[in-house]
Structures are given as C-alpha cells and as structure tokens.
Amino acid sequence: MSSTSSWSRSLLLQLFLLFLLLQLFLPPGLPHPQPCLLLQRIGHKVRVGALLPAQRGVRVRVQAALNRAVEERDNRENRDPEREKDRDPEMRTNFFLPYNLSLELVSRQPAAADPDSVLRCGCAGLGASGVSAVLAFPQNREELLQLDLMSSFMEIPFISVLEQGEPVQTQNRFHLQMAMAVPESALSALLLTVLHRSGWREGTVVLCRGWEEAGGLLSILDGGSSASWDGGSSASWDGGGGSEVSWQVRALLNLTQLAHDDTQIHDFLSKHFKHNRSSAAVLLFGSDPQCMAAVLRGAQDLGLTLPIMHWVLGQPLSPEALQNIGLPLGLLAYGPVEQNPLEFYVRDALQLVRRAIAAAVLLRPDQALIQNHVNCFDHKEALQTSGPYLSR
Questions:
Q1: CB 355 within 8 A of CB 363
Q2: Which H/E stretch holds residue 68?
Q3: Which of 27, 61, 150, 266 has a Cα at 20 to 30 A from 9?
Q4: Is it true that the peptide bond before 388 is cis, omega within 30 degrees of 0?
Q5: What topology does CATH give the domain 184-333?
Q6: Strand ranges of the sheet holding 175-179, from the earlier edge strand across to the other edge
Q7: CATH domain 36-181+341-390 topology
Q8: 96, 75 contact by CB (below 8 A)
C-alpha cells in the first residue's frame, strides 16, 4: 500500500516538473484562430464597392461586365473547395476566402457626370456603406484625378480600370490604376526607340483613312503639333540613361480626303525616294486595307524595297487583313492588335481584392475586417478603416 502511494507521489511530482518546464520554455498559447465575434458582426461578408460611370451607354456595359464577373465568382464559390483544390492548387488562394468569408458587391451610380455628383456618390454612397475597396471606371482624365483625390481622402483602396487614356503619375498608395491598353506615350516611346536604334532620325509619314484613331500617338510622335502636318516637325523622347531619342517628319502624304489615287501615290514616292538611294523609314497609319495595299503596291512597282525602304505600320490592321494586302519584306507591324473584354479586367480586379483580403485576414483580422462608415462630408473625426492595412 505504501509502495503504491509512493509511486503516485513520484508520478505527480514528475508531471508537476514537466508542467513547469512547459510553462518556462513554450510561448503562451494563442487565442482561438477564428475571430468569431468580428465575423458575426459583419455577417461573414466583405463589401467591395463599384462606382459606375454616369454615362448611360458606358454604365450598361460596365454593369454587364460586373454581372458576368460576379456570376463566374459565384459559380466557383459554390463548388467544393477541397475538390477544386485537388484539381488546381492555386484555386483555393484565388477564389476562396478564409473563415467562410464572401465578397459582397455594392454598386452605386452618380446622378450626373459633374465632379460634385461623382464625389457625393463615392463618399456618401460607397464610403457610408462600409466598403473595404472600390472599383471605378473613369471615362476621362478629370474623373481619374478626382478618384485619386477621393481615395486619398477616404483612405480606401481604389482600383481604376482605364479603358483608354494615360494613367496619372501619383504617389497615392490607395489608388491602383489598371490600364486595358498600352498608353499612347509608351507606344510612341517604343516606336521612337526602334527608329533610333535602326539609325533613322527622320522619315516619311503616309496617312490612310482611320489614322485618326492613332491621333494621340501621332501628336506625341510629331512633337505635339499634329494638326498642321506640314512636315519639318520633330519629336523627342528620353530613351533611358539620359540620352534623348529624336525623330523628324521629312515629308507627309495625306490620302484621307479622297479615294486613294495611284498617280498621286506614284508621284509622291518618286519625288522622295526614286533618286534617293539611302535607307529610309516610312510610317504608314490607317485602317483602310485598300489604301494601304495601293501604297505598298506603288512602292513595289518603283522598285522601292529593302534595303532602300523600310515600312512601319503605325496602326496595324487585323492579321487577316495584313495577309491580303501584299506585305513587303522587312515590314514592321506596330501597335495594339486586339484587346481583352472589360470583364477580364473586372475579374482580375476582384481577384486582386480577394487575395489582399485573404492575406490580411490571416495576419490581422482585427484590422482587415473593419467596416467603419466613412463620409467625406462629415469628417469630424478620423475613423479607423481597413484601407491602410489592405493597401499594403
């Protein structure tokens, strides 16, 4: 009996010593991993705002793209996460949020396109709804600048989807600009760099119908004076490393006013190239395949081929049309050919927001899931929001 009691006391002493060692060398225990009270308060939903354009035609198109992107997201979320994870290891990260969270899209449209209406819609309409991020679709530079100011004031991440135009240069960490097309300034910089590295500091421009779509690009190429197109103008670009890339328009043939005239094309090419046997670059802009084919055919009839003449299509036609107009050797087709639909960019923007929320929630749910209502017109005291944390 005494031996049994002695053995029990020895066991208890060993367990007590083991407990003390665990307390000394192991870190304190963490709380329950799921922020239950916070999740219950927000209903397991994270709101994402959509600031729709005021123009009816554009708004209908944007809303349709949002609907398709949300429908695709819902279809994926209704699938079994574990089964989808087995099929695609990245599926769970891209489409499923932790703690059974889901995105709720809140759409608002301004009453008009004026700055005051857009500001009231963004601040009172979306900011007061407790959104964690905002998708916006600016239609001009003024709206883009206003969104940049609004996001900085509200301290909520804004993603502006740009269908056209140039992004603004900003240090605002709350504003991400997603361009659907390569900006015209970048296209002009690329073209000027290609011309410079090929040794062409000047060249000839031929305009066919449809060149107006590249008017902004030509304005930059022509040094900002494309309205005259009288030749003798020049363009320059910093090619990197402090060296300036320059190019000069030596002559121009405008075939946009009348139906293309083979005689006019022949006379122009003969005047500028037949007796000049040095290498030259010719930029051909337009979307009229018959006009472009006539210009290329005229040059071929005069024997103006490589290495004398190098053709650059500044605004390319479709690949099918290019094959049917008789392409000369060495032709460089330059510029955007096709563009993904708007819903692709909406889907990418939503996925970016989802990834940011998923990463933030796992680290600091108390900061990532704040849904305070922000009103620009009643900013008496700064309320803490999830924006500064999610914007990282």
A1: no
A2: helix 56-77
A3: 27
A4: no
A5: Rossmann fold (3.40.50)
A6: 102-108, 45-51, 133-136, 158-162, 175-179
A7: Rossmann fold (3.40.50)
A8: no
* Secondary element (H or E) of residue 176: strand 175-179
What dihedral do alpha carbons 181, 187, 190, 196 form, nearest 10°?
170
* Tokens found for residue 190: 């690329």
Tokens in use for 250? 């030596």
Residue 42 CB neighbour total at 10 angstroms: 17
15 or 206: which leads in pLDDT? 206
What does the DSSP assignment read for 17-44? HHHHHHHHHSPPPP--SS-HHHHHHHTT
Helix and strand element counts for the chain (H, E): 15, 11
Phi and psi (nearest 5°) for 202?
Answer: -150, 165
Cβ neighbours of 156 (radius 10 Å): 25
Q: Which residues have C-beta within 8 Å of that of residue 233, sequence separation ≥ 6?
A: 222, 223, 225, 248, 249
Q: How many CB atoms lie within 10 A of CB 330?
A: 12
Q: What is the pLDDT of residue 226?
A: 40
Taking the C-alpha atoms of residue 262 and residue 226, their distance in angstroms, rounded to an integer, is 25
Provide CB contacts within 8 A for 43, sequence distance 6+.
none
pLDDT band at 219 (very low <50, low <70, confident <90, very high): low
Whether residue 187 has pLDDT greater than 50: yes
Asked if 383 contacts 374 with a C-beta cutoff of 8 angstroms, the reply is yes
Determine how β-strand 234-238 pairs with β-strand 244-254. antiparallel
Q: Under 8 Å CB-to-CB from 364, ≥6 apart: which residues?
A: 389
**Each residue of 54-89: pLDDT tens digit?**
999 999 999 999 999 888 877 766 665 555 555 555
Name which of 288, 354, 293, 291 is nearest 327 in CA terms: 293
At a CB cut-off of 8 Å and minimum separation 6, what does 290 contact? 260
Residue ranges of the domains in the chain? 36-181+341-390, 184-333
Structure tokens at 245: 């890339």
Distance CA 152, CA 44 (A): 27
pLDDT at residue 141 is higher than 60 = yes
Rounded to whole angstroms, the maximal C-alpha distance in the chain is: 124
For 353-366, how does the pLDDT look when each residue is reduced to its tens digit (9 = 90+)? 989 888 888 877 77
Q: What are the two backbone dihedrals, phi and then psi, of residue 239, each rounded to the nearest 5 degrees?
A: -80, 10
Higher pLDDT, 315 or 342: 342
3-state secondary structure of 370: coil
pTM: 0.72
